[in-house]
Structures are given as structure tokens and as C-alpha cells.
Amino acid sequence: MANKKQLEELREVLIERKETITNSINDSRNSIDSLKNSECNDEFDYAEVSSDSFKEGIIANQQIKELAEIEDAIKRMDKGTYGTCEMCDESIAIGRLRAKPFAKYCTPCREIYEAQK
Ligand SMILES: [Zn+2]
Q: Which among 6, 58, 65, 86 could bridge 2 via Cys, Cβ 3.0 to 4.6 Å?
């Protein structure tokens, strides 16, 4: 189980990551907007724009998902349930939390979960 100091460190990591993602989502929204605004331009290669904004959309979706997980993890920290596996109630190893601070499951449960997909 993570101690208080480790929790504080992880919280900082989560908050920092949250800011990075938020900025990055805003950036991709802005670039999609500017692509949309330039669609009237005759010289614009429409196919290229579509595939780019498509990619941007996928990236943004992944980031929005990660953002939700991070916010969830911060809420769990506030509630004091952070660092406990949601499936088996065992403590999640600190090494795993460091690698993935918003992890909800311990490594064995994660493997079971992945295998079921
Ligand atoms: Zn577990």
C-alpha cells in the first residue's frame, strides 16, 4: 500500500498529467476548428484535411478517456479508496501505481480483465 508521501507524489503526477492532457485536447480542438475554417479554400486538399482531423479526433478521444480516469483517480484519493483494487480489494503495488497512477486494478486482476475483453 502506498504511504502518505507516495500518495502525495502520485497526486502531483496525476494533476500534472491532467493539465498536460487538458492543454493538448484544447490544442487539437483548436487545430480542428482552424481546419474547418479553411475548408472554403479552393486550394485546400480536402482528403488530407479529413484524414488529419480524423486522426486528431482519435487522439482527442483517447485523451478524454484518460482524463476521465485521472479525475476518477483523484476522486478516489479524496475518498481514501485510492490504491485499492476495485475487483479484489487488495492493495495495488506502488510500482504499478507509479507506472500507471490511475490504475484501478492490481496486476493479476488487470490480466483477468484484459483476458475477458
Ligand atoms: Zn485485484
A: 6
Q: How far is the CA of 90 from the centre of ligand 1 (A)?
A: 6
This prediction's pTM = 0.76
Distance (Å) from CA 112 to ligand 1 centroid: 9
**What is the distance between the alpha carbons of residues 81 and 60, in angstroms, rounded to a whole number?**
28
| Nearest-angstrom CA–CA distance, 21 and 27 | 10
What ranges make up the beta strands (E) of 1-117? none
| Residue 64 CA to ligand 1 centre (angstroms) | 25
**Over the stretch 11-62, which tens digit does the pLDDT of each residue have?**
999 999 999 999 998 887 787 777 777 655 555 555 555 677 777 778 788 8
pLDDT tens sequence across 53-92 = 777 778 788 899 999 999 999 999 999 999 999 999 999 9
DSSP string, 39-55: TT-TTS-HHHHHHHHHH
Q: CA–CA separation, 21 vs 24, rounded Å?
A: 5
